[in-house]
């Protein structure tokens, strides 16, 4: 599995301006809800409930908020490069500036885990993360994420 199997170019946000983790999750939930055909509040509440179990801030400036939601027809993803890093309660205490949101159907099981692993591999790669941080164009961000060596 590769990022390009999950992420569409129109679901890349090049310069998301949010002040904190809560606002980031709300904005990403808003965007993902329209992709998934779900009410925004359903997506937002599911993401917040998942964050209560433990932060999805992986470290190295990366967060992968994810959740399973009943009624989804497949995996839906959104990538955001933040205009300014925010506190995301990451395991290493570092601020986050790269966020990959992943929504999966409730019974996705191994597909959900494979998608998470793919995103984590890609975004925790120092070379890929550096390229993403140096780019402010959505098409260029997608091209970096879609490179065959990524994911």
Give an overview of the whole structure.
With 151 residues, the protein is of the alpha/beta class. It has one domain (3-146): Mannitol-specific EII, Chain A (3-Layer(aba) Sandwich), CATH 3.40.930. Helices cover 41% and strands 23% of the residues. The chain is built from 5 helices and 6 strands. Strands 1, 2, 3, 4, 5 and 6 form a 6-stranded mixed β-sheet that branches. Helix 1 crosses helix 2. The longest helix has 16 residues, at 21-36. The model has no long low-confidence stretch (mean pLDDT 91).
Helix content: 40-55%
Distance between the termini: 7 Å
The outline comes out as globular
Radius of gyration: 14 Å
What is the total domain count? Answer: 1
What are the segments in which pLDDT stays under 50 over at least 5 consecutive residues?
none
The number of strands is: 6
* CATH architecture heading: 3-Layer(aba) Sandwich
Helix/strand order: EHHEEEEEHHH
Number of helices: 5
Strand percentage:
15-25%
Structural class: alpha/beta
Annotated CATH homologous superfamily: Mannitol-specific EII, Chain A
Biggest sheet overview:
6 strands, mixed
The CATH first-level class comes to: Alpha Beta
CATH topology: Mannitol-specific EII, Chain A
